[in-house]
Amino acid sequence: MPVTTSAAPPATPRGGSPLPPGGAPGRPDAPARRAVRRRRRIAALFLFPALLLLGALIAYPIVFSVVRSLYDASGDTFVGAANYTEMFQDPATLRAIRNSAVWVVFAPALLTGLGLVLAVLTEKIRWRTAFKLLMFMPMAISFLAAGIIFRLAYEQDPQRGVLNAVTVGVHDTFHGESVSFPTAKPRLGDRQLTRQPDGGYRTARRTGPGHTVHLGLVGVAPKDMPRTARPAAGAAAAPAGHGELRGVVYLDFTPGGGGRPGVVDRGERGLPKLSVEAVDAHGRVAATASTAADGSYRLTGLAPGSYALRLPAKDFAPPYAGISWLGPTLITPAIIGAYMWIWTGFALVLIGAGLSSMPRDVLEAARMDGANEWQVFRRITVPLLGPVLGVVFVTMVINVMKVFDLVYIIAPGPVQQDANVLALQMWLVSFGGGNNQGLGSALGVLLLLLVVPAMALNIRRFRRSQT
């Protein structure tokens, strides 16, 4: 009878689980582990150039700046925290910190609010894509070019600055065109007119009704003469009526020469739209007149007596020239306005993308329940757009902390310190004449410490949105 042998059971290692066919425990995992290691080496190989650039352009400058901030201006002497102490005692740095705080408080909030309003409004129009494109186009312009554009737009001279041209136009529309001659004055040696403490002129001799008094001035450039000015000779020959004083206020200069001082010669033009006042013996204004295009004036209704004629100070005050956008008071708001012009399109497009992905059934349900558009906007649209608005706001905070180009280009030299921010102060201290890289590095470290929390918050929001 043949003997039957049964197959031996597979070897069981200590612990109870059978060994895999072919040998030692874990042997089949070796190819998988080799594949994992191979994938990691390939990933590291592809990541190495990026890590190299990251280390060279970000990590190394940060470490170097921290170390350099602990040394003096020459970089040879270790001074510890002296640069940080000096930084917070420097008035220019404190002004830069204050201005940077103004930027952080106002610019991101205004940009986010404006972008939200424009995004909601553009949802109602057909050509919203074209509008968003136009609003986004300033992002394609460099900060340098944008700074030059707004430096010209903010010029004080209305002939060059478009904003002041508009301002002067609106002012003249409601208040009338202001005409004055700031450079006008009596001829040297002329004793007819004497200068008053307020800047006006007054006749030295008094006269009475029925007389004519011609007041000649010089110092008015041809470019400053109004186009409406007419020759004064004809008006100067007209006699004065009963109870009135009359005469002409004219430019006592004959083009081409040959004229006589103090005489209204042919070719000499009158000065229009000037105020002439008759002042009685008690110093009160008895009558007021405005000169015509030929410079003539008529002071009527005068009682018998003696009067002095006065050209008030407003005749010689500079004309209204608009708003001093680049002055110490408005320079920071003016630069923030230029910054908003560049970045409003970014906020509009980003918030518009969030608005387009919003569930419409929620909005329609609210409208069907009787909510008006303001209630829908305030109670539904804004809360649902909260994450997007947060991303836009934090991104703008990071950007305004680093603003440099616009401040450097737009702010004129005399008011640059009034518009100074941390990034500009860092450059000025390090390379703009200060030549103190130790203090400049300390400012750079301070700027990094202020930006890092906003960056961390942005990254945290991004990770939350991915979960």
Please characterize this protein's 3D structure:
It is a single chain. The protein has 467 residues and is an alpha+beta fold. Among the domains are: 90-165 and 325-435, Orthogonal Bundle (MetI-like fold), CATH 1.10.3720.10; 193-315, no CATH class. The chain is 48% helix and 7% strand. The protein has 14 helices and 8 strands. The protein has helices at 29-68, 82-87, 91-122, 128-136, 143-153, 162-175, 233-236, 331-356, 360-368, 373-384, 386-401, 405-410, 422-430, 437-466; strands at 193-195, 201-203, 215-217, 245-251, 275-279, 285-290, 296-299, 308-311. A 5-stranded antiparallel sheet has the order 1-2-8-5-6, with no helix packed on it. A 3-stranded mixed sheet has the order 3-4-7, with no helix packed on it. Helix 1 runs antiparallel to helix 14 (437-466). The radius of gyration is 39 Å and the shape is elongated.
Fraction of residues in H or I helices: 40-55%
List low-pLDDT spans: 1-8
Largest sheet: 5 strands, antiparallel
Classified in CATH, the superfamily of the domain at 90-165 and 325-435 is MetI-like
**Got a strand count?**
8
Order of helices and strands: HHHHHHEEEHEEEEEHHHHHHH
Helix and strand content put the structural class at: alpha+beta
CATH topology of the domain at 90-165 and 325-435: MetI-like fold
Assigned CATH architecture of the domain at 90-165 and 325-435: Orthogonal Bundle
Please tell me what the overall shape is: elongated
Total number of helices: 14
Q: Look at the structure and give the mean pLDDT.
A: 86
Integer-rounded radius of gyration = 39 Å
In whole angstroms, the N-to-C terminal distance is 72 Å
Largest beta sheet: what is the strand line-up?
1-2-8-5-6
Please write the CATH class name of the domain at 90-165 and 325-435.
Answer: Mainly Alpha
Q: How much of the polypeptide forms β-strand, as a percent range?
A: 5-15%
